[in-house]
């Protein structure tokens, strides 16, 4: 990796940090603007309410609260849960769940990208044959059917009709329990990636540099793997970002169908109960995952495409 | 002409393409000869079949194209001095790929901006064919690639090896394409409009480069072009193509100074010229025939002001021009029974001027 590449990555990380800070500020302001407080018990008198608020520092001006929050966050302290898990540290509640959601998301993206690319490449190479048609049908189904429908289908078929997989999340068998939700989540990724890969591959195969490579006297395998694939994959990588956003909204529903102890369920619960710190931590983690993904995608884009890496002026 | 060594002999080549609902007879019986160290140009307008002919030689016809008849005999001499001739039409795809393409016949393409792989360094792209075909080691291939790059006039070749195509100008990229073509020491170089996409000042330099390399390496070269200016500069022999047939062939002097086919007259008249008296640039009226239908008579007849009755009914054979062994014309005007027809006066004046100035070499 050369110097310009490192500089590029550094610049991207800096921008990511700034973006995260902006997101965090908006989030903080928004949660404080939500109607109600975490302490909605009718039994509490206004005086008692003030005491509880003071206990958690919620009586101070918002800007001071934000300052304190940031200070603690840098130390890895995301505050305490007010309602759901009374007075437990948020980090301890959210982190194990985030890990599960994150692993599911990555697994589904990885599985979907690999299968989707293969499908797209086959469709492009065997254009206008039965293979192409099959790939197109899979793509259309994958794009148009939401992931939770797939999850339900898989649960019914593999969990109930021929019970080979658990229908619910099993604490002691996390890998087997993950098969249904991950496969369900990956369907839309497969569909999107296959469609883009096919289109890109077809246009690359028709390009002038492929004719030149052909005129060099290379065999088919070399042509496809050394010359075509890399060029076809560059645009595909860019669509993985948006696909991932879709996937994240999908995880919440799929997680609740398969009873996965992930971020989705707790985020919804915390919004209902105004559990500020849990809302903050969950949303921040979603934002962080998204931005981290975008960063990885941008960097890998640069690694694959020299025109992006070297930028202007070189 | 004592020992002219034949490299390529095409006889009666016919190629058709299947398209939706129709069969396009793109090439209709082409004969072509090319000798060692010589240059031929194939001239014609778009769709006349010049590119298809050369693609057939390379075995890179589009998937819907088939060779209906004919032979493409390619002759080469091995380092041990033994001579071999093979009919490319009869070779399998695998044989053409591993023996001919890139190795014995190489090609330079029209648009250097799009013909290099954008994600591969220049060095890798130049080194690839020799490593692939000859199993050259990486170090040796690197050395040879640097040599090649400096040979095609690229300054600071070592630094360029690490560059990507987008970091080079169009002219530089075309030099790289030429270096790639020469990397496996081919016998025959096909240049498909090699200067069309380049600006005029670079054009001349690229043509000179190809000529220099040709002399140095004793290459045979086929130029495909519609630019008669290019033809005049580089070619020994010219083949004028129209609607999938060669309608006039001869040495460069014969075609430029003594054209016989009305289509060639049209092409020469349509050449832009600075000191012409006419206000308007001449164009040949009409457009080429639809090759999905069977051509009746001479394909050029409907656009030909000099067409005879027979042109509409019978296809003219190749007539030898009296007094020349190389000049041949497919036009009924060459038949002894045909009325005597002169080329247009404006063209005659122009040719006279060209002879005085010595436009052709």
Automatic annotation (TrEMBL), chain A:
Q: What is this protein called?
A: ABC transporter permease
**Topology in membrane:** Multi-pass membrane protein
Lipid metabolism: present as a keyword of the record? no
Location (main, coarse): membrane
Alphabetized Pfam families for the sequence: BPD_transp_1 (PF00528), BPD_transp_1_N (PF19300)
Q: Gene3D superfamilies from the xrefs?
A: MetI-like (1.10.3720.10)
State the compartments where it is located. Answer: Cell membrane
Alphabetic keyword roster = Cell membrane, Membrane, Transmembrane, Transmembrane helix, Transport
Q: Which residues cross the membrane?
A: 12-34, 102-125, 137-160, 175-194, 228-245, 278-304
Cellular compartments per GO CC = plasma membrane
So what family is this one in? Belongs to the binding-protein-dependent transport system permease family.
Q: GO biological process: any one?
A: transmembrane transport
Q: Which InterPro entries match?
A: BPD_transp_1_N, MetI-like, MetI-like_sf
Pinpoint the ABC transmembrane type-1 domain residues.
98-297
From TrEMBL, chain B:
- InterPro entries, per database record: AAA+_ATPase (IPR003593), ABC_Ni/Peptide_Import (IPR050388), ABC_transporter-like_ATP-bd (IPR003439), ABC_transporter-like_CS (IPR017871), Oligopep_ABC_C (IPR013563), P-loop_NTPase (IPR027417)
Among the Pfam families in the record, one is ABC_tran
The cross-references to SMART domains, in alphabetical order and at most eight, read:
AAA
Domain ABC transporter, which positions?
10-268
Membrane topology according to the record: Peripheral membrane protein
Keyword Ribonucleoprotein: yes or no? no
Q: Report one GO cellular component.
A: plasma membrane
In terms of CDD domains, this protein maps to:
ABC_NikE_OppD_transporters (cd03257)
**A biological-process GO annotation:** peptide transport
Q: Which UniProt keywords apply?
A: ATP-binding, Cell membrane, Membrane, Nucleotide-binding, Transport
Please name the PROSITE patterns in this protein's record. ABC_TRANSPORTER_1, ABC_TRANSPORTER_2
Domain of life, per UniProt, equals: Bacteria
Single GO molecular function: ATP hydrolysis activity
Q: Where in the cell is it found?
A: Cell membrane
Q: Which family does it belong to?
A: Belongs to the ABC transporter superfamily.
Its recorded name reads ABC transporter ATP-binding protein
